[in-house]
């Protein structure tokens, strides 16, 4: 009761939650992370309350779990790993602080979701760099911090892109603003027409990188400045089908080398069908009609000469595909370009696209290069067969990143949550698959539950020591999301 009263003094008693049903929601997610109830959930409304909560947790040695997305959640990163935890849910911090069209920057608080940000940006002629069909309840800040891949590789310049500046609260209660935002107040910067676009610093250190991919273990981000794109005037999506992925990889390399296209990514037949259709029987039917692999290429025209831009890119990309005996098409079976390009500009409609086939889906994903993808697909299929898991239930999403220098490779393992055997099979396949893939060179840059040991065993011990030293500097008492990563 004393804890509840202390937290109530900071955020108000109505924002300190001890209702058992609510705590049950935060005790688990749709991953295989073992459930554990937090003692309380606390919901701050602004920076000062976040600072006071962090300071209180540090002084009382209370584990603090930052959360910003609304449920459902999937990765296990927000499930408490130790007892006595308090979840700090930033979901009430929903201010879109500033939209700067001239510099293509949006400054948003941690609780702003894609469903809320997209219409606000469109009013200003902007659009966020989107991941593939995110949940409508997904926090934009969380998505960017988790380094979820975005669909436009020619606009992806760095592993942390589109993140620019951030406001970070450390357990001591101290606040740091990174990059351009560190100098003067925000209002003073805006008065002088400065934007928060430079991500480096303070000094020569990129402090934003310390919180990126850290699963809330290195600091609490209360707002981010994110880079946006101009809202297209015209858009078309073309599909390049193939029974074999290798010719599509060669085609994609050529497109990416010339910085052509906007959206450029690969889906196998099941993933594309799940993105387009909603009913399981329709997904299976469409998947059977589609070719094994499809390279998706979006082309956009903007304010200046949109038709001309579309025309020359379409012609050139068609020629590039022809070099590898590939054909660019506006529609394949029931998958139609005009409909798909609309889907890609907004969050997934309900039911969430990955859950449409069987009701649940568990992903295994890593970073590699495009020329290695076919090798990993073969490995994954061989593993699935050894576990008696049907390869026809595996969706595959390949996303080139940083102008195609490397790519995100993702396998979607569909399963029926009511089928215990199937769920156990997928659980084993996730763990064993990660071990085998890592041994073959896959880089698990986002080591969620079950992958941390695998990921850290494949990097040098000196790096792990360095990570722990950084943790000791910014979180000396180890209160931020303990038990995650290598901490």
Characterization of this structure:
This protein is of the alpha+beta class and 487 residues long. It has 2 domains: 1-231, Uridine Diphospho-n-acetylenolpyruvylglucosamine Reductase, domain 3 (2-Layer Sandwich); 234-439, FAD-linked oxidases, C-terminal domain (Vanillyl-alcohol Oxidase, Chain A, domain 3). Helices cover 34% and strands 21% of the residues. The protein contains 16 helices and 18 strands. The protein is globular.
Question: What is shown here, in short?
Answer:
This protein has 487 residues and is α+β, with helices and mostly antiparallel strands.
Keywords:
single chain; 487 residues; Vanillyl-alcohol Oxidase, Chain A, domain 3; 2 domains; six-stranded antiparallel β-sheet; 16 helices
Secondary structure topology:
Blueprint: H1 2-11, E1 16-17, H2 20-26, E2 40-42, H3 47-60, E3 64-67, E4 86-89, E5 96-100, E6 105-109, H4 114-123, E7 126-128, H5 140-145, E8 163-169, E9 175-177, H6 186-191, H7 208-211, E10 220-230, E11 234-242, H8 245-257, E12 264-268, H9 269-276, H10 280-289, E13 293-301, H11 306-322, E14 331-332, E15 335-336, H12 337-343, E16 360-368, H13 373-386, E17 394-401, E18 406-415, H14 420-439, H15 452-457, H16 461-474
Parallel strand pairs: 2-4, 3-4
Antiparallel strand pairs: 1-2, 5-6, 6-10, 7-10, 8-9, 8-10, 11-13, 12-13, 12-17, 14-15, 16-18, 17-18
Helix pairs in contact: 9-10, 13-14
């Amino acid at each position: 009761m004393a804890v509840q009263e202390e937290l109530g003094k900071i955020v108000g008693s109505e924002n300190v939650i001890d209702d058992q049903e609510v705590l049950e929601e935060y005790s688990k997610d749709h991953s295989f992370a073992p459930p554990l109830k937090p003692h309380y959930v606390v919901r701050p409304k602004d920076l000062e309350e976040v600072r006071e909560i962090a300071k209180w947790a540090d002084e009382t040695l209370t584990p603090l779990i930052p959360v910003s997305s609304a449920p459902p959640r999937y990765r296990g990163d927000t499930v408490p790993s130790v007892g006595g935890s308090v979840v700090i849910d930033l979901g009430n911090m929903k201010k879109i602080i500033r939209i700067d069209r001239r510099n293509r920057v949006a400054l948003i608080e941690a609780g702003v979701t894609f469903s809320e940000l997209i219409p606000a940006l469109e009013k200003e002629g902007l659009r966020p760099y989107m991941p593939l069909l995110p949940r409508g309840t997904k926090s934009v800040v969380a998505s960017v911090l988790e380094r979820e891949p975005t669909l436009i590789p020619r606009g992806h310049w760095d592993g942390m892109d589109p993140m620019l500046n951030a406001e970070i609260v450390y357990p001591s209660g101290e606040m740091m603003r990174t990059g351009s935002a560190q100098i003067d107040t925000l209002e003073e910067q805006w008065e002088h027409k400065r934007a928060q676009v430079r991500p480096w610093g303070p000094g020569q250190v990129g402090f934003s990188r310390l919180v990126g991919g850290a699963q809330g273990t290195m600091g609490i981000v209360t707002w981010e400045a994110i880079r946006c794109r101009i809202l297209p005037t015209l858009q078309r999506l073309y599909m390049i089908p193939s029974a074999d992925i290798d010719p599509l990889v060669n085609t994609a390399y050529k497109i990416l080398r010339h910085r052509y296209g906007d959206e450029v990514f690969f889906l196998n037949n099941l993933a594309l069908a799940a993105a387009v259709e909603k009913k399981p029987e329709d997904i299976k039917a469409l998947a059977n009609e589609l070719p094994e692999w499809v390279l998706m290429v979006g082309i956009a025209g903007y304010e200046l000469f949109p038709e001309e831009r579309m025309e020359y890119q379409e012609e050139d990309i068609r020629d590039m595909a022809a070099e590898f005996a590939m054909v660019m098409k506006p529609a394949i079976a029931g998958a139609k370009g005009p409909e798909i390009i609309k889907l890609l500009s907004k969050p997934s409609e309900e039911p969430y696209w990955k859950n449409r086939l069987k009701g649940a889906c568990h992903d295994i994903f890593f970073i590699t290069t495009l020329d290695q993808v076919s090798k990993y697909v073969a490995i994954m299929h061989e593993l699935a067969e050894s576990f008696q898991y049907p390869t026809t239930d595996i969706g595959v999403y390949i996303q080139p990143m940083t102008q195609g220098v490397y790519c995100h490779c993702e396998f979607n393992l569909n399963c029926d949550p009511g089928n215990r055997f199937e769920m156990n099979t997928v659980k084993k396949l996730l763990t064993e698959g990660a071990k085998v893939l890592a041994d073959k060179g896959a880089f698990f840059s986002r080591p969620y539950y079950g992958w941390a040991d695998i990921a850290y065993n494949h990097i040098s011990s000196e790096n792990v020591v360095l990570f722990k030293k950084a943790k000791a500097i910014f979180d000396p008492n180890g209160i931020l999301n303990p038990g995650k990563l290598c901490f």
